[in-house]
């Protein structure tokens, strides 16, 4: 009988031939089937033998637990384990893991129980293997001689069943650096390249270290963060802090070859349990922690820290972590105060020394306060410094506040806290004496939280306005300056307001009474404890021509004014060269219901003549040509290539061809008629009759559409950059514009930053592009001011508003 035919059934006519052929098959086929079954049976036996060998330590440990609980001998415990396994339908290894979980009640036990609860609604064969894998990994970690063996054990026993292919164990340094302590699934060459990650380099592991919690990356290529093995596996990645007692000793990083879907909580708990195992090995290589409370620490490193604190000219405290019975960080003990320590509440040193930080200063626990920063420094090793922090103490239920400069650094397992209290009266007196000595200086302060601007009387006189008038904020400085000084003022505003650094610039102040004065302005930002900008403080100094005698005398003592004058002159000459090549059209033009405004910002370095261009012109076909482009490189060659491509595009557009065809021809010009010029570009044609914009791109960032208060990028169309290959084709996109729509086209100099991915900069641009603006010109000025690029590249920006 045919194997697929049952008694009482008939084969279809079409299968009769197949049945006959099967009946005539040689008997050798049956032997092949028996051989395959034998091989499969032997393979299962080998797997069972490997599993038994790997779990022998767990079985022996479970026998020991039964000996202790049942008060029996080892032989009886072994028989009892075998009997229980047979009755429960489990293997001895799975039962041994369950017994260990019940006895340990640790993190791995919690993970296994949570996985069991999730599977109670239906049978899940994996629920026991989870505990077995984690216990086997734990056994491998305990047997490992170094962190390298730990990484290999984790991948072999626990992570391969989850689909992971790479493991990296990072050790956190006292300065928040990362050192590769172990790896698996990666080549030795890759490990050598990533053996050390200095502080400040953003990687998945460092992000987990700084945020102090597990960080999941479903697709590593989407975030653009560099890390070990990212070239081989750009799939999912997870980074988990590994620490104990409130201190992060390192980071466990696991990689998958494919993108990760959202993981269930049970898998997340498994990963965190593995990180706890890594912390065990990393802790073994750590120096001895602080001695128990009530006893002077005795290790040499701690003695050096105490000597350092005693040598400091400011009040200093040495703090050690205070753990509860479960090993969790609850507070920090003040184990030493130096001789210069003065308690803000007036208590003597001996009442503070040896106590807990939150008992001595309970208000330090306020959100974002001192305790949170101490905890972060202790956990990550990243130093913390601020020039102004409010320290609050309670004296007879009365809150006393003191502002101080605070510094926190980690040394081993200890934290050194240094503060220097500010004497507000002395500080204000010093500022007054300084202003009186310099003369003709007007001071100001702008509150970044409330927007309030405060001037002194001298500054009102400098501007020629009454003290009853409203002070002028820094963002409106352009409105009162000569147009030729706008570039310098723009760089000054970006440095202070967005790069948050001190800056100075010189400009010509145009007062309302017609008098012009040469002014030098200096400003610096003031930050709070959470690195938030609180205020901007600074001064204006009159360096006008009517005081040439005074300026000449000052120049003999200080060459700063002379060097600034030379720098300003070089900037003006560079700006004239830029305008000769690429005129910065300032006037807003109207054409067929479109309001068009353009801005050109030259590179910040004088000698970098850029290759950015823009164009907005009405064609003979009554369509409007809109284009921006960016030639690679700087210098005369880039500027010459820009002129060639810009003029060529104008000429080609007169043919009436569409944007995609125009870029195809322009690519031939770049490849064959220039000296190896490559460039990116956007070409758009607007039809006033249909209000439709057709556009194409050649490797350029897509335009932005602002509709109402929402800003979005136009859907990406394909197109290779100009000049790269001789033959290239380009896709074409279409956009139906509506009344009050605004279209923004720009070059990458507007948003590029050295320390951020381009995607992050584009998202920031979308946020500020939707900011309400009364006019198109004010919208472009707002973008130029608030886009905090720092690559010293020139920028073209074109705005089109449909009325």
TrEMBL record:
Statement: the UniProt record of this protein carries the keyword Transcription regulation: yes
Limits of the ANTAR domain: 39-100
SMART domains in the record: ANTAR (SM01012), PP2C_SIG (SM00331)
Residue ranges constituting the PAC domain according to the UniProt record: 503-555
PANTHER family the UniProt entry points to: STAGE II SPORULATION PROTEIN E, STAGE II SPORULATION PROTEIN E-RELATED
Keyword match Hydrolase: yes
Protein name as catalogued: SpoIIE family protein phosphatase
Bias-annotated ranges (Low complexity): 12-29
Gene3D superfamilies linked to this entry: 3.30.450.40, PAS domain, PPM-type phosphatase domain, Winged helix-like DNA-binding domain superfamily/Winged helix DNA-binding domain
Lineage: Bacteria, Bacillati, Actinomycetota, Actinomycetes, Streptosporangiales
Pfam families reported for this sequence: ANTAR, PAS_3, SpoIIE
Keywords: Hydrolase, Transcription, Transcription regulation
UniProt region (Disordered), positions on chain: 1-29
Top-rank lineage group of the source organism: Bacteria
Organism, as annotated: Nonomuraea guangzhouensis
């Amino acid at each position: 009988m045919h194997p697929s035919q049952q008694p009482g059934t008939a084969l279809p006519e079409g299968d009769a031939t197949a049945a006959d052929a099967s009946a005539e098959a040689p008997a050798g086929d049956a032997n092949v089937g028996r051989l395959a079954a034998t091989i499969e049976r032997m393979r299962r036996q080998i797997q069972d033998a490997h599993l038994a060998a790997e779990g022998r330590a767990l079985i022996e440990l479970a026998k020991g637990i039964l000996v202790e609980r049942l008060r029996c001998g080892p032989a009886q415990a072994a028989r009892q384990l075998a009997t229980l396994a047979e009755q429960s339908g489990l293997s001895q290894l799975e039962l041994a893991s369950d017994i260990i979980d019940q006895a340990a009640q640790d993190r791995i036990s919690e993970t296994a129980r949570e996985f069991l609860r999730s599977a109670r609604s239906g049978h899940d064969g994996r629920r026991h293997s989870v505990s077995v894998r984690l216990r086997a990994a734990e056994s491998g970690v305990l047997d490992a001689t170094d962190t390298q063996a730990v990484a290999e054990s984790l991948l072999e026993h626990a992570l391969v069943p989850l689909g992971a292919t790479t493991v990296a164990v990072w050790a956190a340094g006292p300065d928040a650096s990362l050192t590769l302590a172990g790896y698996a699934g990666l080549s030795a060459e890759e490990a050598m390249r990533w053996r050390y990650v200095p502080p400040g380099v953003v990687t998945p592991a460092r992000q987990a270290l700084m945020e102090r919690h597990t960080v999941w990356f479903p697709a590593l290529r989407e975030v653009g963060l560099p890390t070990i093995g990212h070239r081989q596996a750009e799939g999912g990645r997870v980074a988990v802090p590994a620490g104990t007692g409130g201190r992060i000793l390192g980071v466990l990083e696991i990689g998958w070859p494919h993108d990760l879907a959202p993981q269930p909580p049970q898998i997340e708990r498994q990963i965190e349990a593995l990180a706890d195992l890594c912390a065990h090995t990393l802790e073994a290589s750590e120096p001895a922690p602080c001695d128990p409370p009530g006893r002077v620490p005795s290790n040499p490193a701690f003695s050096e820290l105490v000597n350092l604190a005693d040598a400091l000219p400011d009040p200093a405290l040495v703090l050690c972590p205070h753990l509860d019975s479960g090993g969790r960080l609850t507070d920090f003990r003040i184990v030493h105060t130096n001789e210069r320590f003065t308690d803000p509440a007036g208590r003597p040193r001996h009442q503070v020394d040896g106590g807990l930080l939150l008992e001595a200063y309970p208000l330090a626990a306020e959100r974002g306060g001192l305790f949170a920063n101490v905890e972060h420094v202790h956990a990550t090793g990243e130093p913390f410094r601020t020039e102004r922090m409010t320290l609050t103490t309670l004296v007879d239920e009365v809150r006393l506040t003191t502002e101080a400069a605070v510094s926190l650094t980690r040394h081993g397992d200890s934290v050194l806290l240094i503060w220097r209290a500010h004497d507000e009266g002395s500080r204000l007196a010093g500022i007054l004496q300084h202003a009186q000595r310099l003369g003709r200086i007007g001071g100001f302060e702008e509150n970044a939280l409330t927007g309030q601007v405060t001037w002194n009387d001298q500054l009102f006189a400098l501007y020629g306005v009454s003290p009853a008038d409203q002070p002028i904020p820094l963002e409106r400085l352009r409105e009162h300056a000569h147009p030729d000084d706008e570039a310098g003022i723009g760089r000054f505003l970006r440095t202070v307001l967005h790069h948050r650094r001190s800056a100075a610039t010189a400009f010509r102040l145009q007062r309302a009474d017609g008098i012009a004065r040469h002014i030098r302005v200096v400003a610096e930002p003031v930050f709070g404890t959470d690195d938030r900008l609180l205020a901007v403080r600074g001064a204006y100094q009159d360096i006008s021509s009517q005081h040439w005698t005074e300026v000449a005398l000052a120049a003999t003592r200080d060459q700063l004014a002379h060097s600034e004058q030379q720098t300003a002159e070089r900037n003006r000459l560079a700006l004239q060269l830029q305008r000769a090549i690429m005129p910065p059209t300032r006037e807003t033009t109207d054409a067929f219901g479109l309001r068009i405004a353009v801005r050109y910002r030259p590179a910040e370095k004088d000698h970098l003549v850029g290759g950015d261009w823009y164009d907005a012109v009405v064609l003979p076909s009554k369509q409007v040509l809109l284009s921006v482009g960016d030639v690679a490189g700087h210098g005369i060659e880039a500027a010459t290539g820009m002129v060639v491509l810009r003029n060529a595009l104008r000429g080609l557009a007169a043919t009436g061809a569409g944007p995609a065809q125009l870029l195809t021809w322009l690519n031939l010009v770049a490849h064959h008629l220039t000296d190896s010029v490559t460039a990116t570009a956007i070409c758009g044609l607007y039809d006033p009759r249909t209000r439709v914009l057709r556009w194409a791109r050649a490797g350029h960032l897509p335009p932005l559409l602002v509709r109402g208060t929402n800003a979005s990028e136009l859907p990406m169309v394909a197109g290779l950059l100009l000049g790269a290959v001789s033959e290239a084709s380009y896709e074409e996109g279409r956009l139906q514009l509506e009344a009050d729509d605004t279209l923004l086209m720009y070059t990458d100099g507007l948003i590029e930053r050295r320390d951020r991915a381009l995607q992050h900069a584009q998202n920031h641009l979308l946020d500020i592009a939707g900011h309400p603006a009364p006019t198109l010109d004010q919208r472009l000025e707002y973008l130029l001011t608030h886009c905090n690029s720092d690559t010293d590249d020139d920028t073209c920006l074109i705005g089109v508003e449909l009325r």
